[in-house]
Design a protein that fits this description.
Distance between the termini: 53 Å
Structural class: alpha/beta
Number of strands: 20
CATH topology of the largest domain: Rossmann fold
Helix content: 40-55%
Largest sheet: 8 strands, mixed
CATH architecture of the largest domain: 3-Layer(aba) Sandwich
CATH class of the largest domain: Alpha Beta
Length: 716
């Protein structure tokens, strides 16, 4: 805790030392702190921003050493792994020219301000500042902690950097300018090289080189992104194709896109999911129940339906289908979208909705915006003189002269704003029934949650249906209300998953075996089915296609939340989707108690679940793709080491298992690459007592002819 105390003292925030100590936050926990964590600790907004920026600069867990005089530095554990990372490379335009015309001391101040702005923006969006290269900044999004939206975070940070750096003035009165390149791809990242002040985490792969080349290609005040990054962004941002470019070190011309700004999108789902809409499959009961609640709401019995489900299970698709079903009926729609970037911004979803409803544009003057509000709330303004001042305050518009004064007590102003918004939403139903959609309530801010609770208490006799979507961690405060309905979406069945995969591949010739393989790997999660099918189509029908790039960030984010239990998940992934406790404990680097605790954490997080296989304790990964991403994150060398260890342990300690399940032993030898391939095949053949049968892709099965006709087929 002394290290944490020193770090907080350096930031001038020693008042938080006791809170960190009471919550057992030490250097190993520090890199994983989120904005929400700091908020729960009672850290103010400004201090949260400074802490996150500092953590980003430190680059992970910190430690103090005598050699650095108590200076925090990255923990040198030397670990490295394979993972998808979005790399941002930023450069200051004209720094060489400034070096010759600006006093070195003034230049140092300018560079420091520029670096602070970059580090602050990167930290706010969960990035990791890997290195300052003079006036260049290298940052990662997706390491050391993965996010399901790493590419989006990188672009948002870049936009913030461009805007904030542009406000810094040079001695000659000109503004600082930047050029930024962003690329996404699989890299080897995390290994510590060097020592002391020269210590840094390496990143190896094509992605950082591509980001650097895009940065060099970009014009001043321009952000260029790679093709993979662009595909992950969907239509969240306005992107302009710049064509293909010959870049040094790249054999083929590389396409690039310029980021023009954030797009005005209503739904994150619609922005990210750019594929053609498919029929809603496997949700007939849920759809029927929601439409039944709509019929009640139409006749003045207000309802709320809370749709709960894991990511990718189809919550937003159900909302989309509901809106399609109602498109022929007269109704008013209010769409509120929560955001992980604004979970601390009061009433952010309502503000976004009001700005869309009033048709604000960037060029509008304050007076023009006030007039648009008057038109939108004409009925209310006629009877309520403080309506416009309240709305102007909510939307950060200067109040027009001559308007009634608003109470100077913040609590009273907040209560008045909430009352006005609730009244206006309910009043909409006097003309046509209202469908109010609140998406991603797990990211809701406290004030919007309070508004929703008040609204639910007011809709008993209103013509309004509210539909809220959220992940399982969200606890709805209105759940006990009489007019509240909870819908928990389950996974699709095998037949439904096959139907979905076949629909996505309708214009392609995928075999029944390939469809079955997709169904087996996706476990009934519609998003997994869609993305894996698309990946297989793009890879010419190869069933063993890698985890789709669109899923890697979200799957890795699930593992990164596990802390030390993640290593146990990675080791278990070497054993396959199903594994026993005894075998895992035999090959694991920790004692049984540590592995036991890790499995408890993995089970609680929904990564693995226990299953009954006779008298032995066994477990299974909940999703094949989660197992795959854990396996793919291991370096190739580490995979071989673990496979070899599994093979040796099977031979020496689990000979009966090796005899009854020889395919497990064969795959372990194959993964370890011990000996020559022909010898490994011969060994596995002897253990299985079978004859080799050549299969697709160079795989080999051993047919035990002695068991033909008794239910046995082949051991792979």
């Amino acid at each position: 805790m002394q290290q944490i105390s020193d770090w907080l003292a350096k930031l001038g925030m020693s008042e938080y030392v006791r809170r960190f100590a009471e919550n057992d936050i030490d250097c190993s926990v520090l890199p994983y702190l989120t904005e929400q964590d700091l908020k729960e600790l009672g850290v103010s907004l400004g201090h949260r921003r400074k802490m996150l920026a500092s953590i980003s600069q430190l680059g992970g867990a910190i430690q103090t050493t005598p050699e650095t005089g108590g200076r925090p530095e990255p923990a040198a554990d030397g670990s490295a792994e394979r993972r998808q990372v979005t790399v941002l490379f930023c450069d200051l335009v004209g720094s060489t020219e400034m070096a010759g015309s600006v006093d070195p001391e003034l230049l140092s101040v300018l560079i420091r301000r520029y670096q602070d702005v970059c580090a602050g923006a990167i930290g706010r969006f969960g990035g990791f500042v890997a290195k300052f290269l003079g006036d260049g900044v290298l940052a990662y999004f997706g390491f050391p902690r993965a996010f399901e939206d790493a590419a989006e975070r990188g672009v948002r940070a870049a936009l913030a950097i461009a805007a904030e750096v542009g406000s810094i003035e040079r001695p000659d009165g000109m503004r600082l300018r930047t050029r930024i390149g962003i690329a996404t791809g699989v890299v080897v990242v995390g290994e510590i090289v060097g020592s002391g002040f020269a210590q840094e985490r390496t990143i190896v792969g094509e992605t950082p080189n591509l980001a650097a080349r895009l940065q060099a290609l970009a014009a001043p005040d321009t952000i260029l992104v790679s093709e993979t990054t662009r595909n992950l962004l969907g239509s969240l941002f306005e992107l302009e194709a710049t064509g293909e470019h010959d870049l040094k070190g790249f054999a083929r011309p590389v396409p690039a896109w310029r980021v023009r700004g954030e797009a005005a999108v209503e739904s994150r789902f619609a922005a990210i999911r750019t594929r053609a809409r498919l029929p809603l499959i496997g949700r007939a009961h849920e759809m029927g129940l929601t439409l039944d609640r709509w019929r009640l709401a139409r006749f003045g019995e207000g309802q709320i339906v809370t749709v709960i489900g894991e990511p990718g299970i189809g919550k937003s698709r159900l909302i989309e289908a509901l809106q399609e079903a109602l498109c022929g009926e007269p109704h008013t729609r209010v769409y509120l979208q929560c955001s992980p970037y604004y979970s601390d911004s009061a009433l952010y979803p309502l503000i976004q909705h009001l700005e869309r409803a009033a048709r604000f544009v960037a060029a509008d003057s304050p007076s023009a915006r006030i007039e648009k509000l008057r038109g939108l709330f004409a009925r209310r303004v006629a009877s309520d003189p403080i309506a416009i001042p309240l709305l102007a305050e909510l939307l950060s518009i200067p109040s027009p002269e001559g308007t009634a004064p608003v109470s100077t007590v913040p609590a009273q102003r907040k209560a008045a704003i909430l009352s006005l918004l609730v009244d206006e939403i309910v009043r909409l139903g006097e003309t046509d029934p209202v469908l109010l959609v609140l998406e991603d309530a797990h990211w809701i801010d406290a004030t919007t949650l309070e508004l929703m609770t008040r609204l639910i208490d007011s809709i008993g006799a209103a013509r309004l249906l509210a539909v809220v979507t959220a992940r399982p961690e969200f606890l709805a405060p209105w759940q006990a209300r009489q007019h509240s309905t909870l819908l928990t979406l389950s996974r699709l069945g095998r037949a439904e998953s096959a139907e979905l995969a076949s629909g996505i591949a309708a214009s392609h010739d995928l075999s029944a075996e390939t469809i079955d393989a997709i169904v087996a790997k996706t476990d009934g999660v519609p998003l997994f089915v869609e993305e894996l099918t698309k990946t297989i189509l793009e890879s010419a029908g190869e069933e063993d296609a890698a985890v789709p790039a669109t899923l890697k960030d979200s799957l890795m984010a699930r593992l990164d939340r596990l802390g030390e239990a993640r290593e146990v998940a990675q080791i278990a992934s070497v054993l396959g989707r199903h594994f026993t406790f005894d075998l895992l404990a035999a090959i694991g680097p920790s004692d049984d108690a540590v592995i036991e605790a890790a499995l408890v954490k993995l089970s609680a997080a929904g990564i693995v679940f226990p299953e009954g296989r006779g008298l032995e304790r066994s477990f299974s990964f909940k999703h094949v793709l989660v197992r795959d991403i854990a396996y793919e994150s291991l370096l190739l060398g580490r995979r071989r080491e673990w496979h070899e260890r599994v093979a040796r342990v099977l031979e020496e300690q689990f000979s009966e298992l090796a005899a009854t399940e020889p395919e497990m032993l064969a795959l372990s030898f194959r993964g370890s690459r011990v000996g020559r391939p022909r010898l490994r095949l011969s060994y596995a053949r002897r253990r299985s007592g079978g004859e080799p049968v050549r299969l697709k892709g160079g795989n080999c099965a051993f047919l035990d002819r002695s068991k033909i006709g008794r239910g046995a087929s082949a051991s792979r």
